[in-house]
Amino acid sequence: MDTAQARDHLQWVDGIVRLADRHLHFPPATLVAWGLFGAIVNAVQWARASGFAVPADGVLQPPLMLVALGVTIWAAWRVPTSRRTLVDSYAGTVFVVIFGVLLIVNLTAQHTVVPPKAMGLFWAAGLSMALLIVGLQASRPLLAGGVALLGATVAACLVPGWFEALSALGWVVGLVVPGVVLARDRSDGRAAAV
Description:
Layout: H1 3-20, H2 28-49, H3 57-78, H4 86-109, H5 116-138, H6 140-158, H7 163-185
Helix pairs in contact: 2-3, 2-7, 4-5, 5-6, 5-7, 6-7
């Protein structure tokens, strides 16, 4: 076998391994960035409801969202394409679709049809669905995060006086903690998998 044939065979085997690989190479920085975004937004809303003088949502949310988007793009760009698996592709699709739908609803319905508190509920419910879907397929930390975010969201609805505070806690426990766990569990660059 000559060098060209050997290279072709190795690329063929690499393709099979990438399809069969069930590891998730999800950038932990993305989870941490969006978890902090959600926690800060809800904490500021809780502070406002408690009577503190805090910046308006329109002043605070766009820069925070741009930072979270920037971190997401930067973190995704750092994952080598040769390391991406079929599971990574599915996870990316789930998060992009859910995020896109929520963003469109947020931009078109908040303050016109949907009150801000309900919009926070939509974001938490949507992202908990994404975490649960990807977590069931490929990652225990994301599954635990999805359960935690959903649990905090349900608790926030049952205790309306603490809605924003419990929602902020849900974002931290649901996204930031799994992001930290995935970052710590990365030996050989792989996220913990089922």
